[in-house]
């Protein structure tokens, strides 16, 4: 989503994902003259809002090159209304919701990007980050192409307009162009591309970023009846965006290029990764980013997080009276810890969902005051109790200390912190905005010293081996699997260009 050697956001305190992508196309009898497809896309983007909150956009087509576009800064519900949605007519369209990392949070970087080539219009929505962005940018500029932003998503769009080395006969060969791009840029991306009459869903050969397919079903049909003919097709970053009148079909395979038309969908190519390389699906999709009801690799995210909690209880047991979580992302792991340890689970903190982010506060005192506003202890479950508090991750460590103070003031006898992921120690160059090395608390303090710093009686992390075990637990035997743990181990799926800075 951004220029690969530009500085990262200095204000970010936690992990931030870059974006979510969504696309929809109706079947051959779908009307071009209404905005129903645009409405479906906007609903899908709202379901993906957790993947990016800074900007969003939708592009639709009525079967010609005059695309309808609306983009803006802010949440989907604030950018789109009945008036502007009604102008997004067409039987196919794509959408995007973005969180900036290196490219500025500005209207010019809103996606989808649209370019007009000699062969027609092309719209692109991208989730991920190109590891070789500087070299690919140079290749595009050397072809005489001008760039108006610092986003690598624009580079992708322009690169797809280049004729592949083997040439073309009778017009553009879009699958060949996509394949050529994928050979130039091995990771990281999930792409949704729209031409005037079709959509392409593309996932990098390492499968680093998620992407899945769904179908639009007729209203009031039996959703379990496999003979029901779909009224359209969907592509989304996560299956949680598929609603009651839609149905999850499958994930886009690593390296797969799927073509979606009014007649249906088909695989047009699969670009293989190097024979000596493993799959590298981002393991933090399970830990942190994805919605609990999303499905990856045939398993629900909630189940994996529960397994992480069980494994955490096995690795780091402690005597206590009650298990609770930092809401809401730690809930599933707390449930698993409670089940494995036979310690009852209860609500320790309530969360005020209307309080904004705490990391933008200018000093620690104001951050702590904001934490107190954001979280409130449940005195009945806290007073006089030995508490195990489960968090999904600790990044800078700015939030956990004030939370422990709240629990102590509410009468907690002991507070034991258990983290349902390993400590973050390394950068991600594939789509996750991780703070600088100095800001990652695990690079400065081990678990015992961190417990002293934040005022916990003890603090322990899940091991890398334990996390992988929890993720692999329900993946079917014989299924090819592999996960990127670079932010935990420093082991990257591809060699990282030396010009990348962190």
Provide a concise account of the structure shown:
With 502 residues, this protein is of the alpha+beta class. It is built from 15 helices and 25 strands.
What does this structure look like?
26% of the residues lie in helices and 24% in strands. The protein has helices at residues 36-47, 76-79, 82-86, 133-142, 152-160, 174-184, 284-289, 301-315, 331-341, 364-374, 379-382, 400-409, 447-454, 464-472, 486-489; strands spanning 16-17, 19-26, 55-61, 68-73, 92-98, 113-117, 120-128, 189-194, 199-203, 212-216, 232-236, 246-251, 256-261, 264-270, 281-282, 295-296, 299-300, 322-325, 349-351, 375-377, 386-391, 414-419, 432-433, 458-461, 483-484. The longest helix has 15 residues, at 301-315.
Indicate the topology:
Layout lengths: L15 E2 L1 E8 L9 H12 L7 E7 L6 E6 L2 H4 L2 H5 L5 E7 L14 E5 L2 E9 L4 H10 L9 H9 L13 H11 L4 E6 L4 E5 L8 E5 L15 E5 L9 E6 L4 E6 L2 E7 L10 E2 L1 H6 L5 E2 L2 E2 H15 L6 E4 L5 H11 L7 E3 L12 H11 E3 L1 H4 L3 E6 L8 H10 L4 E6 L12 E2 L13 H8 L3 E4 L2 H9 L10 E2 L1 H4 L13
Parallel strand pairs: 15-25, 18-21, 21-22, 22-24
Antiparallel strand pairs: 1-23, 2-5, 2-11, 3-4, 3-5, 6-7, 7-8, 8-9, 9-13, 10-11, 10-12, 13-14, 16-17, 19-20
Helix pairs in contact: 4-5, 8-9, 8-14
